[in-house]
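Q: Convert this sequence to C-alpha cells.
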Amino acid sequence: MGIRFATIAIGLASLISAGSVLAQDAESTFEGQDDYRFVIIPKAVAPWFDKVHEGADLAGEMIEAQTGAEVEIVYNAPSESKVAIQNQIIERAISTQPDGIAIDPLDGNANKAILQEALDQGIKVVIFDSFAPEGLEVSSVGNDFCEQAKTASRRLVELIDETGQVAIMMGTPSAPNHAIRVRCHEEVFSEYPDIEVVAKGINNDSIVEAQNQALTIMQANPELDGWVASEASGPIGIAQAITEAGLEDQVHLVGLEKLPEMLDLIENGRAEGSAANRPIDQGYWTVTTLWQQMLGVRTPVYMDTGVDLITDDNLDEFR
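A:
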C-alpha cells in the first residue's frame, strides 16, 4: 500500500535556479512508496566523496522519518578514475532497477548514452558536483565551480603580492567541474602580468599522485611561489610535497574544500586558505531530489549549494 502525505515541505526555494518550477502546486497530495533504493556513483575513491555519502545517508534518514518508508543508499565508487570503470558501475546499477541513480560524471559526453539508457528504463537520474551533460534532461546539484576557483586564485594572488610563479593541480581533466576550475584559475592569473603559470599537474583525485606530481614540479621550478588545485585531494598531496621538500616558508598553498585534513592544514599554517563547497549538502539534496522526482515533482534544473572561503580567521566556524 502506498504512503500518502500532503503539503510536502520541499525546502528547495533558496536553491532553485531561474526558470525552474514545480509540476504541482504546494497543496497537492503526492503518492509515495513503501521503500526506495538510490545508487550513488562518485568519480573516485576520495575523502570528499565520503562526505557526499554522509549527506546522502542523512537524506535517507530524513525520508524515513517523514514518511515511514525504508530507504537504501547504495554507494559504489570506481576503483580508478576511469570512464570505462564508471560506466560499468552504471550498467550494473541499471540492471538492478533502482529507483534512482546519482552520479558525478568523469566525462559527461562519455557517460551520456548510458545515463540516457537509465532514463529510458524509468530510472530517475540526478547529477551532483557537476553540470548535466548537454542534451540530458536531468537535474543537477553543485556549486558555481568557476567562482570557487576564482576565490582560491584571488586568495593566492593576494598572498604572493600579485607577482611570481604559480602552479595548478588539475585533478581529472575530463571531469567537467575540474576543467571549469582550471580554466577559471587561469583567467584570474591572466589578469596579472607579473604572475606566470609555470606548470600543471594531473592527480586524478589521488592524494598520492598529487604529492608525486607536486614534488616533480617543484624540483623543476625552484622559484615556484604558490599552488592552487581543482579538487579536494590535490591540496592534501601538495601540502605533503611542500613539507617533504622543506619549502614551507617559500611556497604558498590555497586549497579547495573543507575536509578535516584541509582544515588541519590551515590550522597548522601549511595552507593559507581554502575555497570550499558543501559536499554533505550536495549528497543530501541529491537524494532528496531523486525522492521528490519519485513523487512526481518536477525538480529544479540546477541547485547551487554555495561556496565558502576558509582562512585561519574564520576556521572555527567550520570546525
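The chain has nine helices and 15 strands.
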